[in-house]
User: Fold this.
Amino acid sequence: MTLKYYTHGRRDQMKVALTFDDGPNPPRTDQVIEILDSRGARGTFFVLGKWVERWPQAAERIVKHGHVIGNHSHLHHIHVGDFDRAEAAIGNILGRPTQFLRAHYFNFFTCLYSPVAMSKDMKIVDADVNPADFAKTDPRAILEATLNDPSLAGGSIIDLHDSTESDDDALRLARPLPMIEALPAIIDGLQARGYQLVGLDEMELVDPIEWRQDERGKFGSPEVRDAIRKLGDARQ
Ligand SMILES: [Zn+2]
Assistant:
């Protein structure tokens, strides 16, 4: 079995993809959509099945405004690959399967147990620009972490958060606020550099990272060891 995931698109095109995880989260997701629309930008929203079930109309608004929806698991529980359950909720909104999936906590191992994640039509997507907006309260810090990231280039995929997996309503509404405050300047800064802000469905994803099983059924490549280390960091 081979697991394949993408961190970026073609480097020779001036396209960048903004991605937003853990929603939908009304009204924060709507605020993000409004900023995107006002600047002619498209975004990709990696949503949680449990929030789509709770706020189906918020998920519908993402689609109605021409943005992309991807699968980001159902409950966002570490080590649980419940992408199939999420897909049922999202499929009700989209009327077709999702094309893109991002493993929660970038825990790609969970994909191996999900027929939806491993289906040949699904693209598993990481990011090459990770400003860690969820851990920052100063909009300027989010802006700078994004625009000054050394990996930022044509084909970049930027990971932001319009929600959180937490069931704490106050936290879920408060946490995305610094990112939302920074977002207009992030988009303006990227567009000033000549980047077109596209949905993942407009970006040709290239150079996937591939995990292959060895003859003992183990995934032993350096990328896997790196992913295990990153996962350890995420749990702290
Ligand atoms: Zn997430």
Notes: The CA atoms of residues 37 and 65 lie 8 Å apart. The first strand starts at residue 2 and ends at 6. The mean pLDDT is 94.
